[in-house]
Amino acid sequence: MLLKLGSAAACEELSPVAGIAGVIVTDELSKTAALKPPCPVIATADSSTSDLIDVRIESDQSLDSLIEGIERSSIAAATLVQLTRLNSRSSVINALCAESLAYSSLQHSAKFEDWLASDKPTNIKYFSEPAILIDRTGDELTLTLNRPANRNAWSTDMRDALAEHLQYAFDDSSIANITLRANGPAFSAGGDLTEFGSARDAGIAHVSRQTRSPAVLMHLLTEKITAMVHGACVGAGIELPAFAGRIRAQSDAFFQLPEVSFGLIPGAGGTASILKRIGRSRFNYMGLTGERINVETALKWRLIDEINDSESV
User: Fold this and answer.
1) Residue 91 and residue 61: Cα distance in Å, rounded?
2) For residue 261, what are the CA distances in angstroms to 40, 72, 77, 273?
3) 3-state SS string for the chain
4) pLDDT > 70: what percent of the chain?
5) Dihedral angle, C-alpha 206, 210, 213, 216, nearest 10 °
6) Distance of alpha carbon 169 from alpha carbon 44, whole angstroms
């Protein structure tokens, strides 16, 4: 394996472009290599210490689910692990920039185009009430996601409203604490799928994402923010709360990153926020399998900080 990775030509052979969706390592690897295959590298031995490894299978994780997820969308899977290799060593701001570039490029991939053509929902919903409610009491600011009928799907309106309110909090130093919560049965079911694919220019999509970024503002305000989550916390519904200094989850909460199955990667900041919380192997497992993570596992992984059912949402 390490000898194969010693040349660029051999490394290229271990690529989804060459028909290799991933590599499974069953023996111990304790060394590193300057060249890494542009596909997921999975270890079935917990003792392997090589930084070649993208995912180390844990006792409660499924190798079959991982393989299925990678083979279903091999280009997105390869992009995700290459990005996490970079972002695990990058600052949050640099990681967000790299994520945006990767996400924007995948919006024009064949897999995502196929999803748009066959599976994209068309039942667009329109709302008259604010996407986010804001309440200021003394030095306390509460921001409440307010699309319960749409399970607080992460839409452009919600993104823009959250960025606006966070900018207000960033500019006002008298705000000591910020609580982020949500109305309805779910904190957020993830991206508003009816809006997927609306950005047809990858360059404009990237620059727009960098221009108005709730993720950057949440990172800058980390120490002031407590996120209170419940129900479905999918995609952006956990990527953004993961920037908070503290996450309190109700026992019905679950967490999921389904984007690779669409031909995309997490694009709301997760490759910076969640990655920093749970590490590269567990993040890659979440992203590549799309599996739901329950609240007990999330606490064990330190994706959340507390399970608390005492406060209603």
Assistant:
1) 29
2) 15, 7, 9, 21
3) CCCHHHCHHHHHHCCHHHCCCCEEECCCCCCCCCCCCCCCEEECCCCCCCCCCCEECCCCCCHHHHHHHHHHCHHHHHHHHHHHHHHCCCCHHHHHHHHHHHHHHHCCCHHHHHHHHHCCCCCCCCCCCCCEEEEEECCEEEEEECCHHHCCCECHHHHHHHHHHHHHHHHCCCCCEEEEEECCCCCECCECHHHCCCCCCHHHHHHHHHHCCHHHHHHHCHHHEEEEECCEEECHHHHCHHHCCEEEECCCCEEECCHHHHCCCCCCCHHHHHHHHHCHHHHHHHHHHCCCEEHHHHHHHCCCCEECCCCCC
4) 88
5) 130
6) 46
Considering Cα of 290, then 74, then 276, then 183, what sign does the dihedral take? negative
User: How is residue 12 written in tokens?
Assistant: 């290229």
Distance CA 62, CA 193 (A): 28
For 191-244, what is each residue's pLDDT tens digit?
877 776 666 676 777 777 677 789 999 999 999 999 999 999 999 999 999 999
The pLDDT assigned to 298 comes to: 98
Mean pLDDT, residues 69-86: 96
